[in-house]
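Progress report, Aim 2. The chain analyzed during this reporting quarter is listed below.
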Amino acid sequence: MANDIILRTRGLTREFKGFVAVEDVDLEIHRGTIHALIGPNGAGKTTCFNLLTKFLVPTRGQIIYKDRDITAAPPAAVARMGLVRSFQISAVFPNLTALENVRVALQRERGESFDFWRSKSVLDKWNDRALALLEDVGLTEFAYTPAVNLAYGRKRALEIATTLALDPEMLLLDEPMAGMGHEDIDRVAALIKKVSAKRTILMVEHNLSVVSDLSDRITVLTRGRVLAEGDYAAVSSDPRVQQAYMGSGH
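Predicted structure tokens for the chain:
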């Protein structure tokens, strides 16, 4: 089953001036799954994400993506290999329409410059693909709405659409439900489930009900180390996990 693992880490560690934020983390993310990274505040989840997407350099340890060592690879190279972090790399311009935003992302994915002054016929060649991506995320009726006028949950959906324009094989979602009400959470959770059909997803998420509904596998971090791993039933019944979350507001 080794070839089923799309991303793995070995002894992943990051220290900040003597403080160990992530310590000896071993992860194995299986292709085609939704894998959640959870833990109390300060557990090292975001640092772990920053290491995987190369916004931080590990103090030690190894990151293997599709059987290739990417530990020393720069962020742009990792993104081109299909490992993309949503909500950081997304290009959402508030005064452009949803369609224009996705069109810009498609131009970027293909290495073309953002020539907004080019003829309409040249730019329109991106429209079919952009409209298809908007349909994928449920934004067809908002194609010509400026991003600034979209509701918060729909803005998040647009950010996912611009990320999907990069054609990622693996998508890292950093707290995709942060700041959302119930209706938006339901909509974006359904969207994540839909886009996961053709991709692997690793997400950091505080909403445990979303984690239980979406995740195939869960890794629990605490104080920078892996505390437990398994499906939701196994993890949520683990006394060590219950202890770690006591008093943390979860």
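DSSP finds ten helices and ten strands in the chain. The radius of gyration is 19 Å. These observations will guide the mutagenesis work planned for the next reporting period.
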